[in-house]
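Retro notes, structure queue

What went well: the backlog is down to a handful. What didn't: a couple of records were mislabeled last round, so from now on we paste the full input next to the output in the thread. Example, using Deoxyguanosinetriphosphate triphosphohydrolase-like protein from Labrys miyagiensis:
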Amino acid sequence: MAGVQIPDCVVRPRGPWAVAPQSRGRLFNEPQSPTRTDFQRDRDRIIHSTAFRRLKHKTQVFVAHEGDHYRTRLTHTIEVSQIARSLARSLALDEDLAEALALAHDLGHTPFGHTGEDALDEVMRPYGGFDHNAQSLRIVTRLERRYADFDGLNLAWETLEGLVKHNGPLLGTDGQPTERYRARGIPMAILEYQAQQDLELTTFASAEAQAAAIADDIAYNAHDIDDGLRAGLFELKDLEQVPLAGELLADIAARHPGLDRSRTTHELMRRVITRLVEDVIAEGTTAFTSGRYLSSDDVRHAGRALMAFSERVGAADKGIKGFLYPNMYRHERVMRVRAHAAEVVKRLFHGLFADITLMPAEWCEGLEQAGEDKRARRVADYIAGMTDTFALNEHRRLFGSAPELR
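Corresponding output:
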């Protein structure tokens, strides 16, 4: 089916700085789809993956027992996807690629949010550690088993590049790991895939990947304030001195005197998102209309992320995070739950590593004579794929009980 023309109805206007709708290619060659672009196809594969469905029962900050109204990884992912699409549409980027990357960005997360990742990384230190970004790559290139011709989802080069590099280059021009990976090196999963297909680890990712990354940041700021208020970890009055949030609360009070708490909270959330999105669009418009970025490769070699906050809004973003860190992420209630959740993950790892036959039979295949590194990675893969509920049930199965995560 070489030479298939993608119908005009699925190709949207794009700037020269956007990624071309036809990919550089896939690790395993496939005929093109007559009805979908490469990135629409990737988006659909991600949505239909097992890992994506599991996001429904993986938590962000709170665990499922806290209530039905808090964000899960799935609801967070949907919010990130909406923001990424809005950014891409406004800046004439490939909306489908931005959406695919937003939908895939959290596939590698463990049960119990960052607590689970930290615990799994701790027990995996002797075997290469654990990194959720590298785990996302493992999922889409190895662990999903849906297709007759290959493991993984066989995503397009641009999607894999964006998944790995959405937070910036992994290697400097000198070939050494960038600051994020300097202490411990590039995760092995990324290096192993890099040996098969060069993802150009010294450059920035596409503008579409950058859009997904900053959309993640925007979504976190808004919904973590919302969830913290719902949980009673802090009150609206506590936000009055927080950059941007305080300014927006004052405006809401002036426009809607006596507005009830619930509506005030929703007004605040939508205004935070709007202000941050509009700022990124303004910054992106300035960059892309400067005439310096006439291809997606120009974006990759810009030396900085072009999808970014202005200096003023960037300072506000740091201020919001500076408030949330002690008042939410390190709140005594959250820390108590985190301690119990971390213990669940660690006990699961040690129990399954000691006796791999406690895992389902398909997870034990090929491990009979395997070394410790391979066994540990298989156990980590198994645990990382668990939902919160399944992890607690597995703990009960292996140890007879599970802590109440409250």
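Agreed that this is the format going forward. Reviewer comment attached to the example: The CA atoms of residues 242 and 323 lie 7 Å apart.
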